[in-house]
Design goal:
Layout (H helix, E strand, L loop, with lengths): L5 E5 L3 H13 L4 E4 L2 H10 L4 E6 L8 H10 L8 E8 L3 H7 L7 E4 L4 H14 L4
Parallel strand pairs: 1-2, 1-3, 3-4, 4-5
Helix pairs in contact: 2-3
Length: 133
Amino acid sequence: MTEKPIALVVDDDHINRLLLGRMLKMLDIPFEQCENGEEALKWLKDTKQSHVVVLLDLNMPVMDGYEMMDYLQDNQSVFLHTQISIIVVSASEYFVFQQRCPEADIIAYIQKPISREIVQQAIHQAYANFQLK
């Protein structure tokens, strides 16, 4: 039996988390929420989920999305228990992201404001990327 992947919304803005949460509920996708990268990394270390799609904002206090992606890349052995796919959800321009992280391993880059259809398409792409067991 396959486990349904879970989404992890990582955004410091309460309204953005609320909007993404509503979209995910409408799409019948289970999800959790964190306010910054540090909280998200703790959640990812502690989770028993084997497949997680991270919807990641870039600009946050404490630990931003760039720092979180760097940590994930540099500490892959810590997260061997789960497959993680990242969808960046940011107000920043894509070319700025691409200049800062030219080799980032992400599924999609969604620029705010977001639409349910674009989020759904990106999540389905992430699901297709998982090696479900």
